[in-house]
Amino acid sequence: MHGIIYRVTSYVYRNTLLKAYRGYKSHREEIFWKEHMECHGKQNPDKTFFIVRRTSTYSGLLSLMMTHLMRIDEAIKRGCIPVVDMQNNFNIYLPEDGIGKENAWEYYFEQPMNYGLKDIRKSKNILYGSGDVPEAFPYNDVKFASGESGELKYWQELAQKYIRLNAKTEQHIHELETQLFAPGDRVIGVKCRGTDYLRAKPEGHPRQPSVEQIICKTEEVMREQKCNKIFLATEDEVIYAAFTEHFKDAVVTNKKEYVHYEKGPIGQVVYREDTKEKYLEGLEYLSQIIILSRCDCFVAGLTSGTIGAMLLTKGYEYSYIFDLGLYTREEYNGFR
Whole-prediction pTM value? Predict the structure, then answer.
């Protein structure tokens, strides 16, 4: 008898109270992440602050930087002051005990217009932007990435004005550059996506050059542009080994650990929970993209890191992005 009562009670709970609670919670979440206005006090009545945010995500720093840049653009076009919030919900760079207390954006960057969350906490007009991912840059378009389409310049100017490193990050990168390069070095930056893409060939993503193709192009550009150093940006141990075997001591990098590809997407391997502290991972990757953007020349497959370097560069003497089309459904091998 007790067993029957328990099963009936459990069934009623799951299908009424629990279901209703989950529905209520989901509805609250949906409303919270929609764009909405709030009044937190009487300060700054002549200003509207736009909270740049993104729903809880495991996305990497470059992805967050790009989506935040698009929201910053939206805020400015609407006459608002953008304030980036990576404090009040989960992201992989914020320790669990830091949620609601520390802004992970400020670990690396300054605020776009020098207003932080503390500065506006009693303001009258606070517009919370949508937490949805805005329409992305055309990652798959070499013409965009190379600047040929004419759209890149607009986003470069925006990124270089509002995506500013804080003093600690800038000092870290300066020290790296001092260690890696000597005065007078001419440096070619090379960005290579790992062999997970070369093996899996995921449908709709840009075809990546083979290691042989990118080494051949790098050698050509080094000779023609008189470069003596290669700054190599890759997470793949096989690519790193091939470059150092071919170019010897000309290869330098800020990467401390590499992934030996076995199976699965490299992104999943790089962002395992048991790797080093996320802040340091973010700093390492951001430093890599910044240094790439400051090289004399640039050679790359089309990846989000390539887009990031092109957004942040003030100009290369020579750049080459492989235009190999997109992988097709028939080519897809799966991440195995």
Answer: 0.84
